[in-house]
Amino acid sequence: MRDGTYRIYKNGNPVAELLYRLGKLAARRAWIVIVAWAAILGLAGGAFALGFTALGNSFDIPGTASSKVIAELEKELPDFAGASGTVVFHTDDDTALTAKQKSAISALVTDADLPDVTTVVDPFATEQQRADQAAQLADGQAQLATAREQLEAGQAQIDAAVASGVPAEALADQQAQIDSGLAELKPSETQAKLGAAILKDADGIRFVSDDGSTALVTIAFDKTRLELSEESKQAVVDYFTTTPIKGVSVDFDTNIAQGVPQVFGVGEVAGLLIAAIVLIVMLGTAIAASLPIVTAIVGVGVGVLSTLAFSGVVQMASVTPVLGVMLGLAVGIDYALFIVNRHRKQLKQGAELRESIGLANGTAGNAVLFAGSTVIVALLALNITGIPFLGLMGTVGAVCVFVAVLLAITLTPALLGLAGMRVLRKRDLAAIGKPVAGRPARAMSTARAAITIVLAIAALLTVASPALSMRLGLPDGGSEPAESTTHEAYEIVADKFGEGSNSTLLVTAELPAGTAEEDVLQLQADVTKTISGLTDVTSVAPIAVSDNRSIAAFQVIPAEGPNAESTEALVRELRELPPVNGDMPLGVAGQAAINIDISENLAAVLPLYLTVVVGLSLIIMVVVFRSLLVPLIATGGFIVSLFATFGAIVAVFQWGWFGIVTPSPILSFLPVILTGILFGLAMDYQLFLATGMREAFVHGSPARLAVAQGFRAGRSVVVAAGLIMVAVFGGFIFSESTIIRSMGFGLAVGVLVDAFVVRMLLMPALMHLLGRSAWWLPRWLDKLLPNVDVEGAALERRHHV
Prior knowledge:
- By secondary structure, the protein is of the alpha+beta class.
- The protein has helices at 6-11, 14-28, 30-51, 65-76, 99-111, 123-163, 172-201, 230-242, 254-257, 266-283, 286-308, 319-348, 353-380, 388-419, 426-430, 446-464, 485-497, 520-532, 565-576, 591-625, 629-654, 670-698, 703-731, 738-770, 779-784, 793-799; strands at 84-91, 117-121, 214-221, 248-252, 472-473, 505-510, 537-545, 551-558, 586-589, 666-667.
- 64% of the residues lie in helices and 7% in strands.
- The strands form three sheets. A four-stranded antiparallel beta sheet has the order 2-3-1-4, with helices on both faces. Strands 7-8-6-9 form a four-stranded antiparallel beta sheet, sandwiched between helices.
- The model is unreliable at 1-10 (pLDDT under 50).
């Protein structure tokens, strides 16, 4: 044996011994274990029934620039601090709304008495008010013009009289009246001029389309988007759809009716069927293939139901349980597969049934425990980002993986005990104890290794290149399913009112201290003039001033939609503007600004999280593989595969390749989520391949031959596990939700690239070139590191039969 490695096999791993005994116990008391897990599943279902409330679609982050503006509004203008949404009424034949239809819509607005709703704006009354204000302004301007003409005519008469020789003193009273009239007229003219300028800047803001076919009803809530319950939003949907108006369709924007995605659908079932086919091909019998699927489904049930039971206590985004389902199914199947596969191999070698189950649990189960721990740690590390909804997603995912690990090392041995020898095919039973002929493993050539490395890295970097242009954002109505009400609302508003009407911004201006009431209009005009002068602003209008005149609010309509680059640039430009008149700083909120803030914050935490995860991977693998270079290879491969995954996502979802989806920015929290999950899964495959290589090396095989021997020992299970994960994650690509679709695609591509390109091509080739140096470790560090014996080699030496 190599120096510094014998003690690993001599001393062994107490955890492996414990798992060995647990496996044998579960096999002997199979029905007790099964009933216990059935009871746990029942308790989780009961907790879900008692504690589950609606899931949300809010991804707000405390402390952003938008949230600070909203906090200020809550104090000074509470009516504008809450969430808002739009109900879109549109005629089915695209003709103008009739008087009867308008009356029915107005009646719905008038009678609306909805929870958490403060204001329901009648579009026709608003348009009438706007028209009345314009008419009054025009009348006022005409009256002022007439008055000025009369005063100027009087002045001309006085001037003519003086010119004809009439003494000016004789006309002093008349001159005083004219001067007084002109002085009184000037403020009114100034006010009228300011009003006209403001009205002109607000000209593009409409609630009824120019062709009269569409009307927008604005709903204002008294709670912020983060605090607003799904019940309150659903109440709005129910109210406006319960009484249909003949010839008129009603749709809702994403602030009201963004759908909660299905946790399980047809695509997911198809993924499970593919996974079942892979299992049958690998394991040979339907009974053996069914065990991993059964444990995974039970794990998903326990994990997801128990976490959803807390949805009434903590706000949970709709995507959170879906992530739990994804991970629970994928790792649940794979972890049970590792144990079942090891058990079958031992049975073929002549091991006694329960002894084999215990040994499989102590060896493969020990590796599962370690692999699951890496995934759990990576997911829990999402809490260091300081982003609540992201941390919660990581925690729920970690709970589901934890449950999957527990099931793998308890329920799987129990089911194997009940299945007995039926996990083997007839020809396997007939061949028990007989030597299996096969060609010995041969080390690859150095030239082949070098070519593999060059081609693999070139392919990965090529796929990764689109990631350089990644833009982050959150889904808008345009990316919702084509037949959904939110998509319809988005498209109708964009068509009838302009794309920018879907991305309204709320801008605040801090007014100077001691602002008098008569000065407000001038200050509002100064702000609207400043904002309207920006390139990508189509309309701006003042909407409110606080009672103490400390803050004014404005509605701003950008030129394009919420995820457009121009809208993002406009938000930044507004925030970078110097204070208007030198003493009125601006703040920007609104849905588009909130989405931008969230995306920027998530992009900012990605480097930190990636650093933590990469650092963690290095430490863990140094302990496991007792090597410095192997962890560097594994970590470098993970980083390259991660960016290749990002590149594929950008090409498909942002650039629109293959026409799968409407091009849009990448889901803002997707890179962080993928980093955590794919890190854990990459370490799983690294573990099951590299530990076999190391085991062969410490048993005396030359370093390069050990690479081939370890690869041959682990490749079949890694191929099967990788295909299963790709199938399970790939099933979510067919979800109607853009969020779920992009997550499923990213995870499927990430596993495909990392398992089949990095772990099975690049990593063995690099290990071959490194040779013996791959396992080098300073003696002083070898003495400090704990003994983990992940695959339970010492246990196998003691109990092998």
